[in-house]
Amino acid sequence: MNRIRRIAMQLLERYDGMFSTDFESNKELLDKIAIFRSKELRNEVAGYITRHIMRKASAQTTTMDEKDKEDEVGDGSNSSNIENEGVEKANTVADDTA
């Protein structure tokens, strides 16, 4: 595990809920809660944290969207299956009478 990721994950665990999807506010927060040897290291950690939180938020949104789509498909697919079974039965009856 690289240094940036390790530092970022430790900070995320320790200060859960304090970081946001805004890079600038994450930089300011890091200045308050941690001491970095360089501005570059602080910025890399802030960027990693920002991307990590954005991915988590995106994944949660995607998961919720997929559940909504499954519910919509699930509701419509049951009626379609019933309609298709009725059509197949009608075709079978027509074939038997011919």
Automatic annotation (TrEMBL):
One of its GO terms (biological process) is translation. The gene is rps17e. GO terms for cellular component: ribonucleoprotein complex; ribosome. It comes from Candidatus Nitrosocaldus cavascurensis. Coiled coil: none annotated. Residues 57-98 are annotated as: Disordered. Belongs to the eukaryotic ribosomal protein eS17 family. This is 30S ribosomal protein S17e. InterPro entries: Ribosomal_eS17 (IPR001210), Ribosomal_eS17_sf (IPR036401). It holds the Pfam family Ribosomal_S17e. GO terms for molecular function: structural constituent of ribosome. The lineage of its organism: Archaea, Nitrososphaerota, Nitrososphaeria, Candidatus Nitrosocaldales, Candidatus Nitrosocaldaceae. Signal peptide: none annotated. Keywords: Ribonucleoprotein, Ribosomal protein.
